[in-house]
Specification:
- The structure is a homodimer.
- By secondary structure, chain A is an alpha+beta fold.
- Helix content of chain A is 46%, strand content 20%.
- Chain A contains seven helices and six strands.
- In chain A, strands 1-3-2 form a three-stranded antiparallel β-sheet.
- In chain A, a hairpin with a 5-residue loop joins strand 4 and strand 5.
- Chain A is flat and about 45 Å long.
- The relative contact order of chain A is 0.11.
- Chains A and B meet through helix 5 and strand 6 of A and helix 5 and strand 6 of B.
- Strand 6 of chain A pairs antiparallel with strand 6 of chain B.
- The first copy, chain A, binds a DNA duplex through helix 2 and helix 4.
Chain lengths: 155, 155
Amino acid sequence: MAKDTLSIQSSKRDTAQRQLLLGLLREAEGHLDADELYQQARHKQPSLSLSTVYRSLKLFKELGLVEEHQFDGTRRHYETKPETRHHHLVCLGCGRITEFKCPTTERLKARIGREKGFEVTEAEVYLTGYCPDCRQRLLEGRADAERKQEIVERR
Amino acid sequence: MAKDTLSIQSSKRDTAQRQLLLGLLREAEGHLDADELYQQARHKQPSLSLSTVYRSLKLFKELGLVEEHQFDGTRRHYETKPETRHHHLVCLGCGRITEFKCPTTERLKARIGREKGFEVTEAEVYLTGYCPDCRQRLLEGRADAERKQEIVERR
DNA sequence: ATTTCTGCAAAGGATTTGCAAATTC
DNA sequence: GAATTTGCAAATCCTTTGCAGAAAT
């Protein structure tokens, strides 16, 4: 990671841990949670601790380098700040996350801000449903309790 | 609560605790979290336990009587199923939640479902920003660290 | 009488924090 | 050398769960 990436706020230091973590987040195709990131990072630096992961994620968030998402009620997921704004569609069957764009959201921010007197800083659209595969399974009647359990556990 | 409210699924029993909790949720103007609901309910029935609150909320959710929201990363909030679909705008300063309508969201569900091959079941739009009061405080320069802390703690 | 619910206390899981040692600037 | 960061372990916070007794059908 370029040193300047972390020095937006003066006193942030460029450590091996932060380099590693930010690098992994950038390479990651999907959205990682803290523990997934931790496991990946341990391969490269086994001494790294989970607290450091959490502390780094907090820092990256504050520096605007990553975004935090709450797809389910349990853990939070992270992705590096995307170039183009997008939103998320989560499959209730398998947990797969699909991204999509929604240009009208910008207009919505402006409109609601005006109507409610808020300064709107962020707008997120969050869709849930069933992905093509899970729909197929449902149709085939294989999505009974057991089958579905399998899928959910695989998340 | 009318008995039939709970008997959508055969085996659900009509207990004093469930009546009380659902009643409070219906009266509540805003969105309660589990502990707020618990505290309110204890006034009327001091022996009630927090586990019962959680178990009841889970049931109400399954019966489609209440909706669960995740406004921040910490706790979940609940509201009785609203007549008209609406979304939420959360103030980052004071936590105040403002509701708004967005009819175009239905169209979005259909469009994304078609484009991605998903069966989209739900769509939520979630905005964050600063409410009129907090904007005012920011302008007055009173929203410095201390002041902001005050507000956040009052949530 | 049978099944479902409750309260209690304990367990769980994700995230945060205090502190001394290690690292960066 | 001074200030920041790390790893570890313990602590927190919200939520869930096991179980025996209480309540509903």
